[in-house]
Specification:
Radius of gyration: 36 Å
Low-confidence stretches: 1-5, 57-61
Number of domains: 2
Number of helices: 10
Shape: elongated
Number of strands: 4
Strand order of the largest sheet: 2-3-1-4
CATH architecture of the largest domain: 2-Layer Sandwich
CATH topology of the largest domain: Alpha-Beta Plaits
Length: 246
C-alpha cells in the first residue's frame, strides 16, 4: 500500500512540474548542441586496410597453418612499429614537422579482425585532407621500415584498401550530444524539484491529517490583493479614514 501511495505522489509531482522538466530538458539539449558546435573541434577520419605476410621460400610452396598463425600474431608487432616513436618521427619529418609525436600517436588507431592477416589503420584529424595525407605517409614509412628490418626481409605488404577520403565528420556525434543534454536537463530539474518538494511542509491533502489522527475543521484561504480591496473589511477601513479626515 505504501508503494502505491509513493507512486501516486511521484505521479502528482511529475504532473505538477511537467513543464519545468520539459523546459530543463530543452535547455539542456540547446546548451549541449551549442557546446558541441562552438567548443568541440570536429574530427575527420581516413581508413586503409593492409595485408602483411611472410613469404615462403618458393612461390609454389603453400603456406602452412602455423605460418598463417604466425602472421596473425605479427600484427601486434606491426602495430607497435606503426605507432612507434621512430615511425612517427619520420612521418612528421616528411610532412614538414607540423605535428607533435603525441598528436600523431593519439590520432592513429590500428584494428585487427579476429584470426585475420589483414588489419585496418585509421587516422582522425581536424580535416579530411590532413587525415588522408597522414595515413598515406604513415603507410609509406611503415613499408620502408618493414623492408629495412632484417627480421622482416621476407615480409610483403599489400594495400587492400588505400587511404580513403571521407568528407563527413566522425565526431562529435549530434545524436549523442542531444541525448546527453536531455539526460543532464532531466537530472538537474529532478534535483531542483526534489529540493523544492522537500522544503514544502504545507499540508495539501486531508488524508495526511487522518493518518495523524487529526480532524480537519475546515480550510482557510488566503485572499488576493484584488479580493482584499473588494472585501467589506477594506471598505470599512476606507470609510473610517474618510471620517477621520473630515
Amino acid at each position: 500500500m505504501e508503494e502505491e501511495i509513493s507512486l501516486k505522489e511521484l505521479y502528482q509531482i511529475v504532473k505538477k512540474h511537467f513543464f519545468t522538466m520539459l523546459i530543463a530538458i530543452v535547455s539542456g539539449i540547446i546548451l549541449s548542441v551549442l557546446t558541441m558546435i562552438f567548443l568541440i573541434t570536429p574530427k575527420y577520419s581516413s581508413e586503409a586496410q593492409l595485408l602483411v605476410s611472410q613469404q615462403t621460400e618458393t612461390a609454389q610452396t603453400p603456406m602452412l597453418t602455423s605460418e598463417i598463425q604466425g602472421n596473425v600474431l605479427l600484427i601486434n608487432t606491426y602495430q607497435d612499429i606503426i605507432k612507434g616513436h621512430s615511425t612517427l618521427s619520420k612521418v612528421n619529418e616528411n610532412l614538414g614537422t607540423n605535428y607533435s609525436i603525441t598528436t600523431l600517436k593519439n590520432a592513429i588507431n590500428v584494428n585487427q579482425s579476429n584470426n585475420s592477416q589483414a588489419f585496418n589503420i585509421a587516422v582522425s584529424m581536424e580535416t579530411a585532407e590532413e587525415a588522408q595525407s597522414i595515413l598515406n605517409e604513415l603507410i609509406n614509412v611503415f613499408e620502408e621500415t618493414i623492408q629495412a628490418v632484417p627480421a622482416f626481409n621476407a615480409a610483403s605488404t599489400l594495400i587492400l584498401s588505400p587511404p580513403s577520403f571521407n568528407p563527413n565528420k566522425v565526431s562529435p556525434s549530434l545524436t549523442l550530444f542531444i541525448f546527453l543534454g536531455a539526460v543532464i536537463g532531466l537530472v538537474f530539474s529532478g534535483i531542483i524539484i526534489l529540493i523544492v518538494e522537500l522544503k514544502d511542509t504545507t499540508v495539501k491533502e486531508d488524508e495526511f491529517l487522518t493518518q495523524l489522527g487529526l480532524i480537519n475543521l475546515g480550510h482557510v484561504y488566503e485572499l488576493s490583493n484584488k479580493e482584499l480591496k473588494q472585501s467589506r473589511l477594506s471598505t470599512k477601513e476606507n470609510k473610517k479614514n474618510v471620517r477621520e479626515r473630515v
